[in-house]
Write a structure and sequence with these properties.
Helix content is 9%, strand content 46%. By secondary structure, the chain is mainly beta. Strand 11 and strand 12 form a beta hairpin.
Length: 295
């Protein structure tokens, strides 16, 4: 993550609406505004997906979309690619009392993820905040937890490294994930970015949650901040979901399991106040990324 930075800025002539992207999430046209909107949008999309994965132990260890989701009520994972440093689980809720997972690839190499290959390496420590009482919660610490994606044609490479904490709490009626992450990531053909994401994800299921069961369909509300730095770019963004994201557990053959909803990242881009919008339209279809001026 030491390659030179490249300056990308939004031109002052940007109109009220930037060009809206195609189904694959890549904006039509070319230029700094499109590149920045796409890169911010892709980053937000990926953090939403990993946040959803962090809502269960099974999908924390095997990212959503790497395998078909198990049926409701079936154990989350039969054979995880990584084993905990300690198997102690005093309350039997599936969350270890205190264990570290050290990922290596292989065996934590997944094929078929967005049509390519996804490697997971690094360290994830999980602690049960109430080891004598079964529940949904955990305290997680990520240390150089890295995901490396290579497309099937070898032309797209995304290297994302996360450090920080996640805390999950909840009941059968809702889950709350609080994240404080420092992220370093690459972009194909563009410079690397450093992102500081501090937000909460509130998940309301359509059916009551069950311990040690897959995440059912439900609504996701997100609120928080994202600090984006790349070369001379520095944007402090406020993240909201004015239209809650609708997670569809029935989309078992794709990583993209949100069928509707909008996420906004509002801030000042250069001299323009505006919003990077991420809009989901259907499961299995990548979201659109667009910029809207709020001046």
């Amino acid at each position: 993550m030491t390659r030179p930075w490249t300056q990308l800025t939004l031109p002052a002539m940007l109109t009220a609406f930037a060009v809206i992207g195609c189904g694959d999430g890549i904006l039509s046209g070319a230029g700094p505004a499109d590149e920045l909107t796409t890169d911010v949008g892709v980053t937000l999309r990926d953090e939403v997906e990993t946040g959803l994965g962090a809502m269960t132990l099974g999908s924390s260890l095997a990212p959503i979309g790497t395998t078909a989701a198990p049926a409701q009520g079936v154990s989350l994972m039969a054979e995880p690619c990584v084993t905990p440093s300690s198997a102690a689980d005093g309350d039997g809720d599936g969350v270890p009392d205190d264990a570290t997972y050290l990922f290596t690839a292989p065996p934590c190499r997944f094929t078929g993820w967005r049509g390519g290959t996804l490697d997971v390496v690094g360290s994830l420590r999980l602690q049960d905040p109430a080891p004598s009482s079964a529940g949904f919660g955990y305290d997680g610490t990520l240390t150089n937890l890295r995901t490396l994606f290579i497309s099937a044609d070898g032309k797209t490479l995304q290297d994302v490294r996360r450090n920080g904490t996640r805390t999950l709490s909840g009941s059968v009626s809702s889950l709350l994930l609080t994240s404080d992450l420092q992220i370093l990531r690459t972009f194909t053909g563009h410079s690397d970015a450093a992102i500081d994401a501090q937000w909460t994800l509130n998940f309301t299921p359509g059916t009551p949650l069950q311990i040690n069961a897959p995440l059912p369909s439900g609504a996701l509300d997100i609120a928080g901040t994202v600090d984006w730095t790349r070369g001379t770019e520095h944007y402090a963004l406020t993240v909201t979901t004015p239209t809650p994201l609708q997670y569809d557990a029935g989309c078992t053959d794709t990583v993209q399991r949100i069928r509707a909803g909008d996420l906004h990242a509002a801030g000042t881009f250069g001299e323009i106040q505006g919003i990077v919008r991420v809009s989901w339209r259907d499961c299995g279809t990548e979201p659109r990324f667009s910029f809207e001026s709020t001046e």
